[in-house]
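Key idea: predict the complex, not the pieces.
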Amino acid sequence: MIRKTVKIIAFFLILSVLLLRFHQVFRFKFNDGIYGMEQFYREKENSLDAIFFGSSHMYVNVNTSVLWKEYGIAGYDLGGSEQPVWNSYYYVKEALKTQKPSVLVLDCFTACRTGDYVDESRIIKNTYGMKLSRDKIDAVNASSPESDRIGYLLEYPTYHGRYGDLSRSDYRKYADTDFMRSNSWKGQYLHTSVHSQPEPEPEEVTETAELDEKNEAYLRRTIELAKEAEVPILLMVVPYVTDPKETKFYNRIAEIAEEYGEGVDFVNFNPLWEEMGLDFSVDYMDNCHMNYQGSEKFTRYLAEYLKARYELSDHRGDSIYQSYDTMAWYYDRFVYNDQIRKTTELPDYLAKLWIPDYVTVFFIKGDYKNISNYEEVRDLLACYGISLDEAGGDAVWAVQNGTVLFSSGGEEYCWYQELGKYDVLTVQSGQGDGKNRIPQVLLNDSPHSAVNDGLNILTYDLEGESFVECAGFAIVDGEMEMGKR
Amino acid sequence: MLFNSIHFMIFFPVVVGIYFLIPRKARYIWLLVSSYYFYMSWNPEYALLIACSTLVTYVSGRQLASLKKVPQSPKTAVCQKWVVALCLAVNLGILVFFKYSDFILNNFNHMLGILGVSQVRRKFDILLPVGISFYTFQALGYTIDVYRGKVEAEKNLLRYALFVSFFPQLVAGPIERSGNLIAQLNHVEDIRLWNYERITGGAVLMLWGLFQKMVIADRAAFFVDTVYNGYWRYGSIELILATVLFAVQIYCDFASYSLIAVGAARVMGIRLMENFDTPYFARSVKEFWRRWHVSLSSWFRDYLYIPLGGSRCSKLCCYRNIMITFLVSGLWHGASWSFVVWGGLHGAYQVIGDRLRPVKMRIEDRLKIKRDCFSYKLGQVLTTFGLVNVAWVFFRAASLKEAFFILGRIVTGWNPWVLSDQSLYQLGLDVTEVHILAVSLLALFLVDQMKYKTGKTLDLFLREQLLWFRWLVLFTLLFGIIIYGIYGPAFSAAAFIYFQF
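Result:
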């Protein structure tokens, strides 16, 4: 009997461990909804000044790094993709269990939507990050049709089918990896691309339009929740390429906010974009989302508004906000890496790489010995300890902090270096053992090469644990281009 | 409540937990309550039908018992026959009304149409109660057994009600015999609940059943449905593959239900009859029916084929009896001419097989074909499988016209290039899914092969193995179901095919 009992206990123990591992690997890992909430639980109690709820309009456009670096405001973007108002309500409820911020900020974009439910992926992104509680059950009930609720609550029925989509990152412990997934993330989702948008036409819309019944009910519940907790709430609209029809809904939200009086504010920031210095030709990555440069401008304006209206103190230098300092460091690195990517001229590019904690692989191919600007290229690369004169045929050098770690032409055919916890850089010289091998630079087994004839430069940020890019400077008509391809 | 639903995953442990904890005398009451809850989770109103069927067969049983107590005379014999006839009429009447009224009306209207008379229209909709064919046959089997004196009439109405509604086998069998199940339910108080081997054995059967259903049957269904729902677009290869996969699907679907039923009952200490015994290893259609849906084919054998005269009559009468039995069996499976043809084909295979046997033997003798070698037996297995598959076309197709079109296209639409142009991966199963299906089918083949060779089911085989191997198989099955099973919000739990019968 004892033997059997031990066997049963052991069986269920192993089963629990396997189930836990299954959960870790298979569960959805979305930056735009699930991680934000999961990481939120790691924040120290009553440490946040401002929490921003809602859709991507919040977590893309409200830059918590700028809030911290320039104003000392401990902000957190607690949003989810297309977050419906009912999910914002439960997020606010969840947040107020551990935080007493100076202001709650709610995005109004999705309050204009209609329909009782959103699509499956949005249900998942806006509920799975919550810890199991009565509120989570209520959130799932509010988010999904009755027949599907049990599946969303148990979660695994929705993610078990990911076996075809699993990738390397699914096996990682996300908190250990890059900035976007770390405790220093604070919910923001930064974009770097630029897509010019039409400037909004100045248009006075005074009419109102009724909100969808469910949206209005949850909007009111959210406001009442904030009032009950005695925390001021700001309902806001972030500047984007707005449809005038949506403005009518925002006017209605303004009326609702006014009904509640003190402690409930509404601001439609749309008409104020010029005051903020936003430039729709460079500050947006699509019609709703700013890139990080745009978010910096908007966030500065917002921070001034918040500081003027709510009691927000400057926490910079306070040791309990160390994770915010880390965030600022990562943010600077993120910006610097983006600047590297946006630098096009070879001399400037090489100058940008001349900082510690980057591994750079130079990989030159083709008839580079006979290019007309050979000496210029040779001298530029010489700063990195690379001797182009000594190289023969396709050649490759791996460099860190001005030291050449590996160069082709030596005895070794292949060289690799572990980068951070998860990435491996492999360099094959294509020479050495007499076999006709192809020279390659591989990051995690994926070959990288931007140009076939010319200079390739692969850069990896060791501290930020992120691949920066593989840039190419091509040889065209017997000359190496100084502009990046 | 489907066996592969989250609802059942909660329901079953709760039922078993309480069953283990409550006083012994209350066990059968608890099982009865649970069984009715199980059935009512589909449609509460249809519990009235099963209650009605229970009451009629119970009263008939009691009547027959009292008639048997009085001195036997021709009059009492007639009375007994009348009781049985009445019981059959009521139960079959309910079955015909709910299951066949559309079929009868459509055929009636078709005839009226030929005669140029205006058609009759029904003013209400009838929804087929889940499992009506199963519990009706089980209850009728009891009445006939009492009439024949094979079992005593049950006195306790609630125990008898549990026999008719016992939830593991209520909606899709096995169709239990009163002699087996009532006897066990009468002694449910004596069952020693904590029996490690029995409980784990039952759990293994349930797990293997769920694997067959959720990983194999529901995955194969994607391909089958894609091809059969657009059959006119495809050639021989797709249609043959879809038909063979349908054979796999229906086997895994139905056998899995029976396995889960047997496993669930075993966990509670009740032993149900085996319903499938590696049917696709059969070497003749006759043998196929000894291995496929055993509880139904033996029911038809005992309550229809033998009363008709069975094989103890002239060859012609015997063939007539076979054809009647299989045509009725076809109709039992569904109210449509396709099912009748399906049943008829199986009957015809056996009649023709019997007629051709001497000729076949003579040819084989003349050609000196060895009969005891592997290739001869394999040929028999493949021929039987092929014949069964031809019949499955009628079973799966939506109509007779569609079935004939598919068979015609299989013969005329030869398109071997689809085997190499990757287009097969566009038919509901991509490369990953095909790999999963292939590995699962290999597992199914190995388990069935073991059963065929040794007679051992998976639970018995595992019991003889070392702990590490047992657990490896169990964890593989469990995580196979969790990861590769077809379920979740985007997927509405696929009903077991045999529920409609």
